[in-house]
Amino acid sequence: MNHIQPALDGMPEPDPDPTARPQSEDYETWIATVWPKFIEAAATGRTFTCFEIADTHQLPDPPNPQAHWGRLMTLLKDEGYVRTAGWACTNRPTAHHSGVRTWKGTRAAQQGRAA
Q1: Which terminus has fewer CB within 10 Å in the chain: N or C?
Q2: Rounded CA gap, 108 and 101, in Å?
Q3: How far, in Å, CA of 58 to CA of 80, rounded?
Q4: For residues 12-51, b (16+ Cβ closer than 10 Å) or e, as one string?
Q5: Using CA atoms in the order 81, 85, 88, 94, what is the torsion angle rounded to 10 degrees?
Q6: Nearest CA among 67, 35, 71 for reference residue 54
Q7: Nearest alpha carbon to residue 79 among 35, 46, 48, 45
Q8: Nearest-CA neighbor of 38 among 27, 29, 50, 47?
């Protein structure tokens, strides 16, 4: 059984988690925020992980992080901006170096003619 000490009036607030990012309230706003950064990454032609781009640009988490990050990458792939490049160990602090998909911008994304 977990015991949590309740906060009492006058107690200092706990320090925020330094690895936590803000979370978007709705999916459409989140997509509009993160989409351009991933298009930029695809245009470089370099290999990247989803977390690398989100972390570099301090992008907010989606309403459902377990499903929406993967959905974003599927949409980018379906639109012709990225292709799968392989696997790597993530540098995400909470993932314990687990294996993640890597992505690379397509030639069309690099030439600005994707989608």
Answers
A1: N
A2: 20
A3: 24
A4: eeeeeeeeeeeebeeeeebbeebeeebbebbbeeeebbbb
A5: 20
A6: 35
A7: 35
A8: 50
What does the radius of gyration of the chain's CA atoms come to, in whole angstroms?
Answer: 17
* Distance (Å, whole) CA 1 – CA 89: 33
Whole-structure pTM value: 0.76
* Rama region for 36: left / alpha / beta (φ>0; ψ in -120 to 50; rest): alpha
pLDDT in tens, 61-110: 999 988 999 999 999 999 999 999 999 887 766 666 678 899 999 998 88
